[in-house]
Design brief:
Layout: H1 6-11, H2 18-23, E1 32-34, E2 40-42, H3 44-49, E3 57-63, H4 73-86, E4 91-95, H5 100-104, E5 112-113, E6 116-119, H6 121-125, H7 131-151, E7 158-163, E8 167-169, E9 179-181, E10 192-194, E11 196-198, H8 203-210, H9 214-223, E12 225-229, E13 234-236, H10 243-249, E14 257-261, E15 266-269, H11 284-293, E16 296-300, H12 305-320, E17 326-331, H13 333-339, H14 352-370, E18 376-381, H15 388-400, E19 405-408, H16 410-413, H17 419-430, H18 446-456, E20 462-464, H19 467-481, E21 486-489, E22 509-518, E23 523-528, E24 547-548, E25 554-555
Helix pairs in contact: 4-17, 7-8, 7-10, 9-10, 13-14, 14-15
Length: 558
């Protein structure tokens, strides 16, 4: 049997004019800012007018740790959103925008898959409405103004050895991780060591996704700490008078993007911080806008629940005063078998024991989610090679933990393949059983917050951090930043900091390499193990297969 590729399915979609999609949420044509016929931004004025509406129910989709076998978290998010609409509910989807880095690196695309996709797929995976370019420009404007200030006399007495603001680029480029800028003599400024992060790791990206409105945006931008003086006192973006111009560059990017699923249901696609190096959630503005317009909102958090869901619940929900009514944990039989020790080339063969062995990873995520007080259900994202015995083994395991697993075929069947999941999610969300709570309180010390996540979520025995890191955290606490949540930057492939430790490892240590204060975003970034905030391309990047065909159409995105 031959299957159409994701891009072939997306290209054949019967898309409706974006005004028709907006009308499903009672958004008038005047409140939409069209970008062509099939995508638009929702005006800030309209969003403000809907703020007093009774919010709908929030459903979070997360997953087990990713494997090369695939999990399909975005696909399930879209399929569930379509299925909720199919059973008569007024539902919307909220997902992140795609970064060019992983699109041309390993991932190839980030708009769902099969018959559970958001369209226009090509636009979403490439430049879309220019939000990421605006974020990159705003970030690098601050970089330019910082070095310019030092060049023209350094009135603020910035210690160029203590500049902490890197530049960014929306591309995987390991060659830019560490470099020296301002070489070439007096006209070019004062040489200093610098480097690049990927745009999705930028504090500006985090600020855009966590702010409430344009006033909050500019305040947070102003709070960004870019450098320190010799006496260790901080220099902010506001000190450099860059916050106003940055806010201007982000004016349009702040407004969420409205597109549609293959089944012509509304989808908000806005913001895109990575979950392994940032907080991994779409914008609070988009989520709250959707909640003010729909009865059910399905959103996702990046990578496995140990990263994306933990940050969604501890950071986004805390900052945005959000509380999910239900959580869906996505798993595939193939991925469970890989967690059970099966090599990728052997996944086609039935192996019930490997499924049972690999379910420990799923079980760990279920147990972790229960700590937040929100009921969880497992979505088994179906692949054609899954056997009945393997599916039953997974269902039985989940049932033994007091939860339930539902088989979903939305990739192949669209909404029809997720009706059972949608029905059960509605039952759970409407039951009122969710009693959401964060994992740690604001009053805990920064190191205690890190240790709580390491032990309660990762199941590490210890956190390894040298005296310099302990001292830095104490200095930030003394400066008034101790109340901030922590954003863990860690490999997505394991509960540990070692990507090779699959399953549900215990007895491991969590090594902290560095900590970074994101005063504008309002969290402390904790970089663990070998994780990089500027990824590199793989040996064979997806870019090698992306091209324009003879008809001028894009090929290679997935």
């Amino acid at each position: 049997m031959s299957f159409k590729t994701d891009i072939q399915i997306a290209r054949a979609a019967d898309k409706k004019p974006i005004q028709e999609i907006g009308a499903k949420l009672s958004i008038s044509n005047d409140d939409l800012i069209p970008y062509g016929h099939d995508k638009a931004k929702v005006s800030a004025k309209f969003i403000e007018s809907q703020a007093s509406n009774k919010p709908g129910k929030l459903i979070l989709v997360t997953a087990i740790n990713p494997t090369p076998a695939g999990e399909g978290k975005t696909t399930t998010t879209v399929g569930l959103g379509d299925a909720l609409n199919a059973i008569g509910k007024k539902a919307a989807v909220c997902i992140r925008e795609a970064s060019l880095g992983p699109c041309f690196g390993m991932k190839g695309g980030a708009a769902g898959g099969g018959y559970a996709q958001v369209v226009p797929m090509e636009d979403m995976n490439l430049h879309f409405t220019g939000d990421f370019h605006a974020i990159t420009s705003a970030h690098n404007l601050l970089s330019a103004m910082l070095d310019n200030h030092i060049h023209w006399g350094n009135e603020l007495k910035i210690d160029s050895r203590r500049v902490v603001w890197k530049r960014v680029l929306d591309m995987n480029d390991r060659a830019l991780r560490s470099l020296v800028v301002s070489l070439g003599g007096v006209p070019n400024g004062f040489p200093r060591q610098d480097g690049f992060d990927i745009t999705v790791a930028s504090e500006v990206m985090a600020i855009l996704c966590l702010c409430k409105d344009r006033h909050d945006l500019q305040k947070r931008l102003g709070d960004i700490i870019v450098a320190y003086r010799r006496d260790r006192s901080p220099i902010t973006c506001r000190d450099l008078k860059a916050d106003g111009a940055m806010a201007v560059l982000l004016k349009d990017a702040l407004q969420p993007n409205l597109v549609q699923t293959l089944e012509n249901n509304p989808a908000f696609v806005h913001g895109g911080p990575f979950a392994n190096i940032a907080h991994g959630c779409n914008s609070i503005i988009a989520t709250k806008t959707a909640l003010s317009l729909a009865d059910y909102v399905v959103t996702e958090a990046g990578f496995g629940a140990d990263l994306g869901a933990e940050k969604f619940l501890n950071i986004k929900c805390r900052k945005g005063e959000l509380a999910p009514s239900a959580i869906v944990i996505v798993a595939t039989i193939r991925a469970l078998k890989m967690n059970g020790g099966v090599l990728k080339q052997n996944l086609a063969s039935e192996n019930v024991q490997a499924v049972k062995d690999g379910c420990c990873n799923l079980g760990r995520h279920i147990e972790n989610i229960q700590k937040f007080g929100v009921p969880a259900i497992v979505a088994i994202n179906h692949f054609t090679g899954d056997s009945e015995a393997e599916i039953e083994a997974c269902k039985s395991y989940v049932e033994g933990l007091g939860s339930e697993a539902v088989l979903c075929k939305h990739w192949a069947l669209g909404s029809k393949g997720a009706i059972d999941l949608a029905t059960r999610v509605c039952d759970i969300a409407d039951s009122g059983k969710a009693k959401f709570k964060v994992l740690y309180g604001d009053e805990m010390s920064l190191m205690d917050k890190i240790t709580t996540i390491a032990k309660d979520i990762y199941r590490a025995d210890e956190v390894i951090a040298d005296k310099k890191i302990h001292d830095q955290l104490k200095q930030w606490e003394a400066a008034g930043f101790g109340h901030l949540p922590v954003c863990m930057a860690k490999t997505q492939y394991s509960f540990s900091a070692d990507p090779k430790l699959s399953g549900a490892p215990i007895g491991h240590s969590l090594p902290i390499r560095e900590v970074r204060l994101s005063a504008g975003a309002g969290f402390v970034v904790v970089v663990c193990g070998e994780i990089m905030t500027m990824p590199g391309l793989p040996r064979v990047p997806s870019a090698e297969a992306i091209l324009l065909n003879d008809e001028g159409q894009i090929e290679g995105l997935s």
